[in-house]
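Q: Here's a chain of 376 amino acids. Please give me its 3D structure as tokens.
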Amino acid sequence: MSVVGIIFSNIHDKNIPDLTQRRTMASVPFGCRYRLIDFTLSNMVHSGINHIGVITHYNYQSLMDHLGSGKDWDLARRAGGIQILPPYITAFANPQNFLYSTRLEALKNIISFISGCTEDYVVLCDCDVISNIDLSELIEYHISTAADATLMIKRMYLTRDNANHVHTVKCDSEGKLTDISSYTGRESGYADISTNIWVMGRRFLESLVTEAIAYNYNSFIQDIVRKNLNARVINTFRHEGYFATIDSIQTYYMCNMDLLNEEVRNNLFNVPGRPILTKVRNSPPTVYAEGADVKNSLVADGCVINGKVENSVLFRGVTVGKNSVVRNSILMQDTIVGDNVSLYAVIADKNVVIRDGRNLSGHETLPFYISKLIQI
């Protein structure tokens, strides 16, 4: 069994425009030291997938800097490894020279990559997912059922606030997909949702994309999945572990705050044999000055804490000044908080400077966001 992975790095950028103005969704920082793509990459690598193509759109300089040669994920290989797939990969793949806006258009742009692979199966994943999943179980289930395609699903409690961009699915008693549609937000309650993690035969995917090019199809769900519900065997596979999608600045905030829960951290980072891998950086230990007070927080290396930090997530190189109080906030790399500052429900992007005496407050449902490189 040989498998190639395809990762969509930009599909969901418009969901959190504040964080993706200068980067892709894949390279959005998360949880002190990670990028969102680390979860998808780690899931693939630990499942034996060592040939991975990352489809890019624009703003992917930070993504390339993060991935490098792929050595931190054991993907620096002569054969296979990690490949960046830009939108203009060949003139044949993209004769109109347009930037894709849908999942299917992205696949049409890389048809030469798909047809050039030699693997038997392909796994498609997004980069807005926070999870630790054994994809080998999904692949083995797909092969054992001889399905044309298999979709991983998750049962979740949906509301208008936490499920803005999800697809709900329905399946029969044997797990065959019978319907898939966008969640309208009109009714709250438990429902099965699509994780956007698919496994299918590589040649089958190639035939679908070739057909989409011939008939000018643009929507993966409407033009491919829904049209093949009766003609093809499309199965579902249920994931039971922790799973979250980042589809707004509010859910980004909530997912980071979830990490302060020990059970969530264990489900993500303490799974035997499946650590979440990321780019290794050598930083000095964090300095806790006399009078510093830190409670229920995640603090990365290289920070200097002089004040009070509570229920917060601090990335590398953050400085918190004297008599300053940081509560329920997310401070990204190299943020500087001056003296006598009060922060509540604040998200500070990289290299932000918050001057002395500032009092900034948001709310858990609407955090106060400060853009990268801003001095306030």
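Q: Can you summarize the key feature?
A: The chain has a mean pLDDT of 92.
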